[in-house]
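Researcher: Going back to the complex we discussed earlier. I've cleaned up the inputs and rechecked each line, so this should be the final set. Can you rerun the prediction on the complete assembly and write out the structure?
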Amino acid sequence: MEMNSRKEKKRDEIVDLCEPISGNDNSFIKIPLTKISHELRTPLTSIIGFAEMLLDDPAIKEKSQLEYLQIIRDEGRRLDKLIEAIINSSTKYEDK
Amino acid sequence: MANELIYIVDDEPAILMMLELWIGKRWGYRVEVFDSGKPFLERLTEPPDLALLDLMLPDISGVELLKEIKKQYPDVPVIILSAQGSVEVAIETLKLGAADYFNKPIDWPKLEIAIKNCLRLASLSRELEHLRESVDNRLLFDNIISQSGEMQEVFKLVNRIKDNDICVLLLGESGTGKELIARAIHHNSNRSSGPFVVVNCASIPHDLLESELFGHEKGAFTGAIQRRIGKFEQAMGGTIFLDEIGELDPSLQAKILRVIQEKQFSRVGGNETITTNARLISATNRNLLEEVKNKNFREDLYFRLSTFPIVLPPLRQRRTDIVILVEHFLSKFGLENGKTKLKFSRKTLDLLYNYPWPGNVRELENVIQRAVVLADSDVISEKELPMPIQLYSSADIADEHHSMFSKGDAILPFEKIKENAIRHALKVTESNIAEAAKKLKLGRATLNRLMQKYKIKI
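Model: Rerun complete. Updated structure for the full complex:
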């Protein structure tokens, strides 16, 4: 699985999600809550899923362990960026 | 190890990889993964046992994929995985036929149970469908026990014409189950709620048959003290089965022809024209075409009756059925006679298997009934079989054929061979001269003359 292209793609999606927020005044309320939920839960799903996999099976090969941990880290960062973007835009909204 | 095939669609590479690991590697299912809707739809030519769909996909939405699966394969269970967390979406997908809905992050133990349950339910419903089909088949041919290919062909034909009002002519030797097939046609047709009326044309005296078939008015003939409804009227909305139709005399043949062509008849001694909608099934063990050639049977009626002929093979041509019929009758009569542990000895079974059964299933049924009644131990020996079967064996027949033409190296005189042929024919036909003459391709008079010549007495 191509992790680099995955990261690139997700970074774009975060920007996509934030664009309407940083646009005109009315756009914030137009973002469906389900979309925010989807974007937050998608990386969470991978983080929890791979963590559980590691906890569940101590016999996983070292190479796989490393791969899973990298995914957890990457998805965690993705989540962090997303939260940051949401907070930034909502601060902008409140400022306005 | 589970072997079911599961298709998984999710556009998130990490989640797809994780699902593949959990479901494929951990739980042992065969897994195929797709990162968008299009390749998944292309792969749908081969249906999976279960599909796991993400809702938000880049090309086609999960809801659309769900609709497409349900359209093509309504029985394939679909589990929806979504990070949207919206109750409305969950309800919508369930309404569209999804078997379950899971929010991300995924609760793995719950997902495992859900997959197991869905697959179990799908396999149960397939099993139910299968059972339902076999029950339908059993209903369809109730009382007809057969596994032979020839009879399966007959069943297929019956299935094809059951709801059609086409005239069916059942051809077959006595005891092959012509009436059972006629009943099967009726009971499985859209007329099954109507009456099924049987008339055996051979068992009713010729002069009474007309009134039996069409009814009579009061005073139509001596003894007609009141109006009587005939079989064709009784069979309104149902089926009338004319057995031994080859026995009809010419005047009745004309009347039957009118019923078939115009659906009309009159009672004996009556003026009123009655219209009938009864479906006609007829049967005979005679060679009707031969009867037509000999001017004993109307050609036009023959063609009308035989619009759809079904030939029932004699038992000796489907020997595999002998075994299951023997078992069936043994348990049937064993139960009736309180002898449930009965078995046939090996030799008895061999005799039953090799006997040519000129009386077909009916004869076999009678022989087994007799054997069950006579049996005084749990094993039925050959002594409980009628003499002709006890004395019959295929080896005898082979010898007989051999000795019919020669004795060792000595060559038999031609006259002796002719005599042997006649004796053999009479034995096989149980001394039925007409039948023996037919099989020998001789005139009946010629056979009689030859029998006198060779001093053969029966």
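Model: Worth noting: Chain A is about 85% helix and 0% strand.
Researcher: Good, that matches what I expected from the previous run.
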